[in-house]
Amino acid sequence: MKKNYNSGITIIALVITVILLLILAGIGISMISGDNGILAKTSIAKENTESAQIKERLQSVYQGVLISHQTDYTKSILEDALKKEFGSDYSVDDSNSSNWILSAKGESISIQAGESTRIKYTISFHPNGGIGTISNQTIYSNEEIQLTPNSFTKAGYIFTGWNTKEDGSGNKYSDRQSFSSTENIDLYAQWRKQIIATFSKGQDVNKKMKQKSGNANSTYSTTNTNIILIKKSSAIPDGYDTDDNNVALSDSEPIYIWFNNGTIYYYSAADLLYLNKDSSYMFNNLTGVKEIDIKFRTDNVIKMLQMFYNCNSLETLDLSTFNTANVTDMASMFGNLRALKNLDLGSFDTKKVTTMSNMFNGSTGIRFLNISSFDTRSLTKMSRMFSSMNNLKELDISSFDTSNVTSMEKMFDNMSSLTTIYASDTFVTTKVTNASNYEKMFNNDTQLVGGNGTTYDASHIDKYYAVIDSPPSTPGYFSDISEKAN
User: Which fold has domain 120-194?
Assistant: First the structure.
């Protein structure tokens, strides 16, 4: 009896277990096999992965063709590359002139159209009387490019653009213009003669600037504190183009100046502005000026006497564009500059200069001076050249050839901070024979020490100590440039 009872219980438990398993199985089947089921999602993910891989392979094929052919590929080149990668089921759709479609295994990418629909044209550039070379430029149909920048030059002329006709009667194009074409094309450089303006003499320009700023009776020697800035203007206000404002030579394109709120403006319609052959005193005694906008050429200048003298508020001076190849007189050119700390004259050509007397005399502000490229073979006068530059600690005159110099009195006088003068054996005093022309050369240079330790001695301040220091036989105040540390 007991045995039958246990069997009944076992059968009932089994039935319940089967029912529970069926219920659970029903839920699992729904989750796995439904539209949103795991199997469906897995299938989609697989398809997406395969699609991405095919597109990646298509892109790789395209990049390979670009590397080997750049943009000069054809439809057949692409087809060969696709066949190599996919074997079959690939195509190149070249029906669009701008973009082609690469397809394989049901996927596709868009690429730039190749040679079968893009026709190559050549742009040829001609100097048309100028000189220089510009390589031909390639352009394709349905493409827009920027024209190669002009590099042709023609002496005395300004480049104005391109034209399809030599005489300028064809189509016009500007430099670097955006350009498209459906044919090979020749472009000819177009030129017009340069317009040149030349300033009046430096002292006359100086006088006019001071008068415009409110000093009616000024001359070049009159001090002026009203002018703070001198600046080139790109335009001229109405009513300022008068003879009274013109500071150009009478046979030149006009150069107009005017004063406004501390600034002297200058303007000309000319392409190039040249300083006068005699530009002496041009900025002399402009004691309030802090900056000068150098937008003029100095190719023709012969005299620069006292050009910036007593501009003692001048804080910056960029003379890197100065052409001094024809200058003979630089006496007192930079005298009495008190605010200017750095003066770089490394670009100066001084081969024709005969006098530099007082060139930097009294310029107490200067702490750095670059004159290392000075060619002084024509120089005869150097008296007081560096006198009273009492904030300069080091001076390099190693390029100086003084074989023709006759006067050096007080050349380094009162340079109370100067410790080192670098020189070479081309600094000689053979023509400085008159005692009055070499007296007090090193007067009051109390910190000066020669390259081998010779210290300043107030009883030895003339030309005989203007040598490279080689004690005990030849003591001097110069240091050999060859021993200067880089």
Answer: Immunoglobulin-like (2.60.40)
